[in-house]
Amino acid sequence: MEAVTIKDIARALNLSTSTVSRALRGSYEINPETKRLVMEYAERMNYRPNPIALSLKENRSRAIGVIVPQIANHFFSQAINGIEAIAYNRGYHVIIFQSHESYEREVVTVQQSVSRKVDGLLISLSSQTSDVSHLKELQDKGFPLVLFDRVSDQLDTPRIIADNYQGAFEATEHLLQTGRRRIAHLTIPPWMSITQERLAGYKDALASYDVPFDEDLVRYCGFGEDVVGPMVDELLAVTPAPDAFFTASDRLALGCLAALRKRQVAIPETVSLIGFTNLNVADLLSPSMSTVIQPAVEIGQLAAERLIELIERKQKAAPAGTVKIPARLVVRESSIREPPE
């Protein structure tokens, strides 16, 4: 079958090719009803822009770069699905890079992506990144840049995140409502945005139930192997011992579950456990794990939309700032416990 062209769409809808072209680009000059008709027909006919023709016409690569700490992380693989869905429908290719949680590799990867002439860059910062001067330099040159999930307020650019504070507050509140009062928090490096937001939600939930914050119940874990077991041992040795664990990432949630089971600590009878995770097997674990689910696909989609708006310099492009998408607490066996009378 021959590919459907803009001319074909224009002929079918009795519109000019320029109107169809602008509607497909989301131009503010085209009224919403016309845009809807064009987009629906294009989707029905499986229209796809020709990226080679577009790049020649517009002197752009029609490619966007995406830098994530690890593709193997289920959150980032879901976010990439959202990014690719939007990019594909808008005629952009996606080039994916990994920083592997390394600041030095992130800097090199940013340079590589720009040298490949991508039109813009989506990035989630590595766990080692506290200095964002390499990105500030790009932004100062007018290069389109959007941060997602792990972000920095040192950059005046769109930032798309989950509502980490709300998710952590609800998870901690759930534990408090079931009578837990010694809630340990395993989290990631303290300079990361998601660490600070989740710790703030945890602290405020404790305060709302008049439970004092205890620094001894918080542990900051790196991203090395076998770091969770020793942290769990340290926490179990605290007096009084924790009666719940709230972890701030997939890796920590699984590591904590394994460590507690290895030490024959009953879940949820002795301690409750909640993760902040996008694990697609959380309900298959034993016990099934209560989790705060991040809207990864939606974050990826919105980040891609914001980047393409910046690339195409739309008059109505969204301003810089942070957009928070609600997270969702899913309660399963690992934290279900009858509250005390």
From TrEMBL:
Residues 4-58 form the HTH lacI-type domain. Pfam families: LacI, Peripla_BP_1. Keywords: DNA-binding, Transcription, Transcription regulation. SMART domains: HTH_LACI. GO terms for molecular function: DNA binding. CDD domains: HTH_LacI (cd01392), PBP1_LacI_sugar_binding-like (cd06267). InterPro entries: HTH_LacI, Lambda_DNA-bd_dom_sf, Peripla_BP/Lac1_sug-bd_dom, Peripla_BP_I. This is LacI family DNA-binding transcriptional regulator.
